[in-house]
Amino acid sequence: MADDKGKDREKGLDSALRRKLLMGLAGLPALAMMPRGAFAAAPTSAVNTTGLAVTDTEVTVGILHSATGTMAISETGSIQAEKLAIAQINEMGGVLGRKIKIIQEDGASDWPTFAEKAKKLLVNDHCAAVMGCWTSASRKAALPVFEQYNGLLYYPTFYEGLEQSKNVIYTGQEATQQILASLDWVAKEKGAKSFFMVGSDYIWPRTSNKIARKHIENVLKGTVAGEEYFPLGHTQFNSVINKIKLKKPDVIFADVVGGSNVAFYKQLKAAGIDLSKQTLLTISVTEDEIDGIGGDNIAGAYSCMKYFQSLKNPNNEKFVAAFKKMWGDKTVIGDVTQAAYLGPFLWKMAVEKAGSFDVDKVVEASPGIEFKEAPEGYVKIHPNHHLWSKTRVAKALPNGQFEVVYESPELIEPNPFPKGYQ
Amino acid sequence: MFGDYSLADLSSIFVMQGFAGLILFSVYVLMALGLAIIFGQMGVINMAHGEFMILGAYVTYLCSTFFQTYLPSLFGGYFFVAMALAFLASGAMGMLVEWALIRHLYKRPLDTLLATWGLSLILQQAYRTIFGPREVGVELPSWMMGSIPVTDSIEVQINGLFVIAVTTVITLGVAVLIYRSRFGAQIRAVMSNRSMAGAVGIDTEKVDRTTFGLGCGIAGIAGSAFTMIGSTGPTSGQLYIVDTFLIVVFGGAASLLGTIASAFSISQTQSTLEFFLSGSMAKVLTLLAVVAILMLRPQGLFTLKVRR
């Protein structure tokens, strides 16, 4: 009995002790949030002198794409790729010992919204870097914000060039990288002399076609049989297809985008233009677009990009497997998706080279950064903030994939302000 | 302008261009027909017309996937089933929308513009959530692809012929329904004098609902047919809405014949100009011409037939 009483007393003590312990435990998360300078690779005060959102364990990075609106079609792939890259970096231990935390904002396919959200990511969230923008219009809208608040943007889309900013790293191709080598290829391989250009009516197709025209006329000594533009969202191409039939160009050079793209290829096919006989070179169709166009409708066309899902190299096989594991078996990976995947890695390497998250130091460290594990093979950042990369031409297959038929032997130097092409 | 072409080329230009214009005409009539009924007969500005079309397109997509998986032997004929289902789906959705939204706004016609615009945004986001933001590819049976060569340089697109046939059938059907049937008489009666129509025993609410459903159903058929020539994505409906309104307004809101005449003139102008000028320029000139004509004949221009 006495023993029992003693035990009771002990129990009483026990529970009081336990309560105190529990109270202490409740405070543990707060403890975890306290600075633990001793454990981190480098003290935060040293790697972050400009007030970015960097703690001893975390660094905040923004993702700014359209998850809603018209452009969601294209930008979804980029969001997925960036999230995959960041997840992989975190698995590898993060950047300078800090895990990346994502803040995702929706540009909603509306250009002023991009500027507004960019400001939010830089001013409120103090993001160390932002992966984002897709259309040139959204980039142009957000650019002044990045320059004003000294942010850092990784921009994934192939675009028209004619731009270079301290605050942007362009992970896609500028126009000459995409176009010139493929025109050379088609002239040599198919003996092409006359070209017919069809594009959507805005800055990217017009600038690209201008560069292509100069190259065709001055370098290849060929002719441009026609150059036609249609408003964005145009769905009727029968008239221009008739014109193509009459002009009988050696090559149709197409940069139609969005919903018009689908209509263009469907009507081309319906009009009896057989793409296995009529050479068509496009700079606006990736695996993503073929999903909507339908493999049968575009089989035989040639696309000029730097990346195709079917590329055969160990880096790409790993990337494709990881992408499908994260986002499902049915997703396809287009050129821009791959370029978006490069952004977080290039940033990580620049930060580690600089030993700091400070934007100025990261920018300074960026030129010369090499990414040998890139799915496209190998890329390197040029002092003009674009990437050295290869040009590839591939033939569309009925199953929606591409078969690479040409690859430039060397990396092509980015040249956003090409002389003689403006 | 003609100097570059030989005489044989020129004659095939005219034949092919005539046919291209005819296809465009059919496409325009098909997309405007549903709106002409709703806007012309009921005075409701349905900004969600494009989204009802895309509902039809998605139904077609689901149908094609279903037939491919479960009934591959009947795949060749699935398109007809898909069009019927598209009509029912869009029609049912239209009646639901009329019941939930439109019927409260008959006395405030301009508010229908806002309400249906909001509806179009909601539907777009719903498609995006359900089918994903990417465009879907609709597989067509092989007999509907390609073209029939008539001569060396003249070829006739099969899907063009198909659109022309569908448009003809639907237009005749609508004409008979509105001008020759008992139901059509009821629609016209309600439009011209609502209270009198009610007094002689017409169930005006039912007529409203059915008319709206009919217009939306036809939009669904149009969407289904357009999977052959255009894209199917959450926002594809937006590609059609401007042209559709242009045709209905230009034709004079209340008349079916006006819609057809306006679709004809706009499509022919557009397709001819596109051939001789560039695509964007053709559009600009067509729009300028429409504006100029509407200034001279403003009857067409948004003279809302408001219910009294």
TrEMBL record, chain A:
Name assigned to this protein: Urea transport system substrate-binding protein
Taxonomic classification: Bacteria, Pseudomonadati, Pseudomonadota, Alphaproteobacteria, Hyphomicrobiales
Keywords: Signal
One matching Pfam family: Peripla_BP_5
Tagged with keyword Hydrolase: no
Highest taxon listed in the record's lineage: Bacteria
Matching PANTHER family: ALIPHATIC AMIDASE EXPRESSION-REGULATING PROTEIN (PTHR47628:SF1), PTHR47628
SUPFAM superfamilies: Periplasmic binding protein-like I (SSF53822)
Presence of keyword Cell membrane: no
Signal sequence interval, chain numbering: 1-40
UniProtKB/TrEMBL annotation, chain B:
GO terms (BP aspect): amino acid transport
UniProt GO MF annotations: transmembrane transporter activity
Highest classification ranks of the organism: Bacteria, Pseudomonadati, Pseudomonadota, Alphaproteobacteria, Hyphomicrobiales
Location of the protein in the cell: Cell membrane
CDD domains: TM_PBP1_LivH_like
Any Pfam family matching the protein: BPD_transp_2
This protein's record includes keyword Transmembrane: yes
Record-level GO cellular component terms: plasma membrane
Membrane topology: Multi-pass membrane protein
Record field: transmembrane: 12-40, 52-71, 77-101, 158-179, 212-233, 239-263, 275-296
The family this protein is said to belong to: Belongs to the binding-protein-dependent transport system permease family. LivHM subfamily.
Record keywords, A-Z: Amino-acid transport, Cell membrane, Membrane, Transmembrane, Transmembrane helix, Transport
Name this protein carries in UniProt: Urea transport system permease protein
